Amino acid sequence: MVDTTITFRAEEGIKQEFEQVCGQIGMNMSTAFNVFMRAVIQEQGFPIDLTNASRRAAFQKRQKKAVQEFIAGVNATEDSLTDADFAELENGNYRLKLNRGFDS
């Protein structure tokens, strides 16, 4: 495989902080960007959540309630997941957390 060079601009402070964090986890910036690029390819999108934090928190609250109602056998209420939530899920904007713990 032939390597190629990628050049881009970043704020100096951000670059320095990024370089420091990379060093703390035992890699250089080049390795970190290669890991990131592979993750983008694997996910077919950003491997990190870029949605609005307040929208995400509201969704997670509704998700938690809907799952609890499902487990309890209770019918969904107006506070449960909405059609818009399911559209967001289909678009890949949210990811369901199917684990035992939920964030409030």
Molecular structure report:
This protein has 104 residues and is mainly α. The protein has helices spanning 12-24, 29-43, 53-72, 83-90. Among the domains are: 12-43, no CATH class; 53-90. 54% of the residues lie in helices and 0% in strands. It is elongated and about 55 Å long. The chain starts with 11 loop residues before the first helix and ends in a 14-residue tail after the last helix.
In what range is the share of β-strand residues? under 5%
Radius of gyration: 19 Å
Identify the quaternary structure here: single chain
Structural class category: mainly alpha
Number of helical segments with 4 or more residues? 4
State the helicity in percent bands.
Answer: 40-55%
Q: pLDDT average, as an integer?
A: 75
Produce a short descriptive summary.
The chain has 4 helices and no strands.
Q: How is the topology of this model organized?
A:
Blueprint: H1 12-24, H2 29-43, H3 53-72, H4 83-90
Which short descriptors sum up this protein?
4 helices; 104 residues; single chain; mainly alpha
